[in-house]
Design goal:
5 helices; single chain; about 40% helix; about 20% strand; four-stranded antiparallel sheet; two-stranded antiparallel ribbon
Length: about 160
């Protein structure tokens, strides 16, 4: 670990800050969206593939996933990304690039969504701060997963 990282760790109360060549940042976003028509299309082997695709896009765009959760409806991601991105392009990358791959691999999903789009247009983006902490969001995601599983639905991210 470099001396600069040690200085930042001490300055930030024990937390390690993330770095890019021109920025030091500590941001967390809670992103939420649903499948089109709120259909329960993310079942069977599809949730595992969604996890893999989201991991690939996160790695490619330097997005750190802190927690992922949800049931077939909606999807929750607690993540951090460099300040060069805003939440809209991050959500767009997760939604559009991966929807095409899922439609190719699972044609039955596209048949259930007669409009040809996997995700609804809208999304929720919430920043994590003093009142709504990362731990509060993690508990919320965990509670949502348990609640939906209790209703005999499969959890998207276990």
């Amino acid at each position: 670990m470099s001396a600069a990282t040690d200085r930042l760790r001490g300055y930030n109360g024990g937390m390690v800050l993330r770095r890019t060549p021109h920025a030091v940042y500590d941001t967390l976003y809670h992103l939420v969206w649903s499948p089109t028509y709120r259909r329960d299309v993310l079942q069977g082997e599809i949730p595992q593939r969604v996890r893999e695709l989201f991991a690939a896009i996160a790695a490619h765009y330097d997005i750190t996933r802190e927690a992922m959760g949800g049931s077939p409806d909606p999807v929750h991601i607690l993540c951090s990304f460099p300040p060069r991105y805003s939440s809209a392009p991050v959500v767009t990358r997760f939604k559009s690039l991966r929807a095409r791959a899922l439609f190719r691999e699972f044609p039955r999903v596209k048949r259930r969504l007669w409009g040809g789009e996997l995700w609804e247009d809208g999304y929720l983006a919430r920043t994590v701060g003093d009142k709504v902490t990362a731990e509060v969001i993690r508990r919320y995601i965990q509670h949502h997963r348990i609640e939906k599983v209790g209703d005999a639905q499969l959890s998207l991210f276990e």
